[in-house]
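Hi P.,

Sorry for the delay on this. The queue was packed all week, but I finally got your sequence through. Input first:
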Amino acid sequence: MKRALYLAVLFISLISCQAQQKEGTELINPTEFAQKIEIEKGKIIDVRTPKEYKSGCIDGAVNIHLYDKDFGERIDKLDKNETVYVYCKAGGRSAEAVEIMQEKGFKHIVELDGGMDAWNEAAKPVKK
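Then the structure:
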């Protein structure tokens, strides 16, 4: 009986974890992110503050600060069928941005797991 209950809880946990990542959305490490932006064209969006962005960003990134009043309007101008790469400093703001973009109907969103902190730790190139 205990084993059946354990298996049921495990099964429910696995289903709920998979439900958190919606179809068309990827959360990937810096190495995979760097490879993917080279192979699959798309728009790279940095959702950090302008000050953070100016301190160093991923080459080709456009700064659309998550907490700016016009964030939604600026995101709406992007092609929802084009791959969009999203990152922030550590992952919190990019996760919020991904949710907004999913609600707006973006088809393929790639999020940098760990943000610029992980990117820098992996010694990936930064544009100053």
